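Mods, move this if it's the wrong board.
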Amino acid sequence: MSPAALQALALTLAVEVPVLVAFARAAGWAGWGRALVGAVGVNVVTHPVLYAVSTGFGSPWQLVGAEVAVAAVETVLLVAGWRVRAREDAVTVALAVVAANAASTAIGLLVL
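Not the wrong board. Structure tokens:
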């Protein structure tokens, strides 16, 4: 992984993990350990793929589409990993994931 990719991953983790852990803990979906492992794990899985494909993007809409796909994958993984059962809670996980991804994307575009 290139230094730029590592820097982007570090920023993603710094922004998204606290958001996701806070949501998981506040909603009672997971204890500290499971919340942290889930939040870090989904980003370690999805970020390298997104970073690799995003270098070839020629349009901001491609980034938006890729982020939507990432949010969908992360939501599915977190709902399973945190053992979220209620449909309403799964929607809330999706909203938390979208919020976390939007924040890290915005900050990443500003600073990287």
